[in-house]
Design goal:
Elements lengths: L1 H37 L5 H22 L19 H14 L7 H6 L5 H32 L12 H23 L1 H4 L8 H20 L6 H5 L7 H21 L6 H19 L6 H33 L1
Length: 320
């Protein structure tokens, strides 16, 4: 009886920590440019309500579509297991790293505690490909776009900003849905694969409450990664970034059901974009400057990967 209670306690703690970590760490990937370009125009709770509507739709649509499973099939290769203390410790480590503003992959840190080494290897390969593809796509797009789009010298024409604003909200909603269908697996792994309605109500309340906190904090510390990149606070640039990111995620969502790091795709996207801007920049924004920014983000990702590998090796060869 005591063992059963401990399993339930670990599952609850793991779920809550993973939910907070995903919202506080990963959601800024999709909502970061949205927050950056709208925080001066709208109250935080209007932005939160819009994001919450998409969140609830994605959550309940996935639940009804997949027989009570909210992971959108991302856990097909990771069967449900009884939660142990080391499973709950994984998101706790992620939470600690998040407090230092490190863009760690939640997928690697959380799912590595449950996945076999073979599945972890496939996750890594898919994430590396995602990083590279996002960087290439972003570089090509921005190499062309940056030649005709200068946010500082050629701002949006008067009267046209409202159109771009609507376009950005729609694009962000599409991206938010696509991203959630990937990353909900990082939270659902702590839950039974078929959830009753009562659980869904509790989960909905937890998610929307955490999301409210992130909007209130204007993205938190991870938001710095978005703000230090060029022109991310402009609605036009933010819209294009979000659209590019959404289509890359959609491609990998349809490719197979192996989980992947959306963090790596996001950082790859910003990496390619910054290099494109530096390629055609006439001022002092050079490759040397970009290498410093991109290299710093890459080293932080590598730190998260090392911790993830250490977790999965410890579970398989020490605790088990």
């Amino acid at each position: 009886m005591e063992a059963s209670l401990l399993v339930q306690l670990y599952a609850i703690v793991g779920f809550l920590l993973a939910a907070y970590s995903v919202v506080a760490n990963d959601s800024v990937q999709t909502l970061g440019t949205f927050i950056a370009s709208n925080s001066q125009k709208f109250k935080w709770y209007y932005l939160w309500m819009a994001a919450s509507l998409v969140l609830l739709f994605t959550l309940w649509y996935g639940w009804s579509l997949n027989g009570g499973d909210i992971s959108y099939g991302r856990l097909n290769k990771i069967p449900y297991v009884e939660i142990q203390w080391y499973h709950a410790a994984a998101p706790a480590i992620l939470l600690l790293l998040t407090r230092f503003g490190i863009p760690v992959s939640t997928t690697f840190l959380v799912l590595s505690a449950f996945a076999s080494t073979i599945v972890l290897e496939k996750m890594l390969v898919k994430s590396v490909i995602g990083y590279g593809l996002a960087a290439i796509v972003a570089y090509i797009m921005w190499f062309v776009i940056a030649r005709i789009l200068d946010e500082k010298r050629s701002p949006i024409k008067k009267g046209h900003e409202s159109y771009w604003r609507v376009g950005q909200w729609c694009t962000t909603g599409f991206l938010w849905y696509t991203w959630l269908s990937h990353d909900l697996a990082n939270i659902a792994v702590y839950l039974p694969r078929a959830l009753p309605v009562s659980w869904m109500i509790v989960i909905s309340i937890v998610f929307t409450s955490l999301l409210a906190w992130i909007f209130y904090e204007k993205g938190g510390r991870i938001q710095k990664i978005v703000l230090e990149k060029s022109t991310t606070t402009y609605v036009r640039s933010a819209t294009i970034i979000d659209l590019c990111y959404a289509f890359v995620l959609l491609f990998f969502k349809q490719y197979n059901d192996i989980p992947m790091s959306t963090t790596w795709v996001f950082v790859g996207l910003l990496c390619g974009r910054e290099f494109a801007i530096a390629s055609i920049s006439a001022n002092n924004y050079t490759f040397k400057t970009v290498f410093f920014i991109v290299g710093k983000d890459f080293l932080k990702m590598m730190l998260g990967l090392v911790v993830s590998v250490a977790i999965v090796l410890s579970i398989h060869y020490v605790f088990n």
